[in-house]
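User: Structure please.
Assistant: Input sequence and predicted structure:
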Amino acid sequence: MARNNPPLRVLVWGDIQSHPWQEHERPGRLQDVLDSIHWVYAQAKEKDVNMIVFMGDLFESKRSVRSDVFTKTIYTLNELNADAASRGISLKAIAGNHDLYNGECTLDSVEHWDVCNGSVGISRIGGFPLGFIPYNAVLPDVVSDPYQAFYAEPLLYFAHADLKNIRMSTGFTSKTTTLPDWVFQVDKNRAAHAILNGHYHSPATVYPVSGGLPTWVVGAPMEYSWSDVDSSRVRGCVYLEVDNGLKKVTQKHLENEAAPRFVSDPKNARVNDFIRPTAATTIHCPDTVVHENVKLSSTSPAVFLAEWLEHKGIPEDERELYLDTGRYLFGG
């Protein structure tokens, strides 16, 4: 019985959507993606998890992926998965909408992943039943024998699905007005604690069925574009722990502090963040002895950067290095 086993520890992540991210303007963005993948697996190792679940959407494009992006992403995952598998960690992945094209699933290219694609599945890890629902899952309206266990047993469900009223990015909410049929069936499972959902990049807790099971939206492990500017929703992964009595599930969102963010005010920026200046922007230098603000004389990115680097005391002959990194990049 599961109640006689140690607690179950699961790390959940997804929606990495690997691609160059305007590589001619931002030379380091693909590396940011790869670094975020490494960060996720470092959290799994630190938490000593039993299982890692990828929630879908490995690449941004479902039709074509540049060869170096594909190779570096797959190589990174294969290497990290091999290490995780050698330590006895179960590795599960569910197909997202970005992973499916013309009958093929991109996730099949990754070694060691047990991919859930096309139909739902149950995995029992240490005696704990968990349900998995890919984006392309086809379920009957009426609960039939093959699905009775799926609707009655899992403690947690992991899905990649369209849901109502989910915040997708700053100022943009999902336009979906209906829910998949499986949501109503799963909500009747008295053993279930929650649904975890991928697909959306901003983490949140919502209730698709009023008064029903909570849905924990996992979110993406990093911010991707200016649509995320000044987001209050931290990006990273979710750590779950299920006690051995099956009575309690705790969840914690772990923030990927190493990943660059998009901010409008430099005083809120961390190292490597992307900054978009405005006419009212002031530069704040928290690492100086005197915390002083410097007014911008121009909103031009070039002038802004020159003033900032001068104020930071960066020698003129070294300023080109800051430009080459692509980190201090401003855009619409």
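Residues 125 and 231 are 35 Å apart (CA to CA).
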